[in-house]
Specification:
- By secondary structure, the chain is an alpha+beta fold.
- It has a single domain, classed as Nucleoside diphosphate kinase-like domain (Alpha-Beta Plaits), CATH 3.30.70.
- Helices cover 41% and strands 17% of the residues.
- The chain has a 4-stranded antiparallel β-sheet.
- The radius of gyration is 14 Å and the shape is globular.
- Bound molecules: cytidine-5'-diphosphate and magnesium ion (MG).
- Cytidine-5'-diphosphate binds next to loops.
Length: 138
């Protein structure tokens, strides 16, 4: 697995609100481009695998329900080394209410649990998550 790729999910709220083009466009304009891209509705098993680190937390069940409740866009984005970190910076803080203006969450969201986008939080997470969503790329 190369270190210049990361997994992004445009969550069901992003799809429902018609923000897919806006969000992907921000990455494309920065020359961080999709190498895999798919609209899909997650089954529970995939959502559980993806959010395994959060099992038992108060927000776990609502998050699984939300992530499986409608179509999302799964993408592997490619850019320079450390692309996962650039993507995280462009996403903004997890709690959208605190996310800086200019970030995706800071420009388009206000809630912790409707924060539009997931991005891998390390090179190791990126490798693991890409394998979950796009095993043929690994
Ligand atoms: O998505 P990110 O990596 O920024 O945050 P996380 O801490 O890995 O949490 C995963 C997801 O769970 C968040 O993006 C939120 O959708 C949700 N969450 C929540 O609803 N309430 C919290 N207190 C923490 C997370
Ligand atoms: Mg996370």
């Amino acid at each position: 697995m190369t270190m210049n790729r990361t997994l992004v999910l445009l969550k069901p709220d992003a799809v429902a609100r018609g923000l897919v083009g806006e969000i992907l466009g921000r990455f494309e304009r920065r020359q961080i481009t999709p190498v895999a891209l798919e609209l899909r509705t997650l089954d529970r098993a995939t959502a559980e695998l993806h959010y395994a680190e959060h099992v038992g937390k108060s927000f776990y069940e609502p998050t699984i329900a939300f992530m499986t409740g409608g179509p999302l866009v799964a993408a592997v984005l490619e850019g320079p080394d450390g692309t996962w970190e650039i993507v995280r910076a462009m996403m903004g803080a997890t709690n959208s209410a605190a996310a800086a203006p200019g970030t995706i969450r800071g420009d388009f969201a206000t809630l912790m649990n409707r924060n539009l986008i997931h991005g891998s939080d390390s090179a190791e997470s990126a490798a693991r998550e890409i394998a979950v969503f796009f095993p043929s790329l690994v």
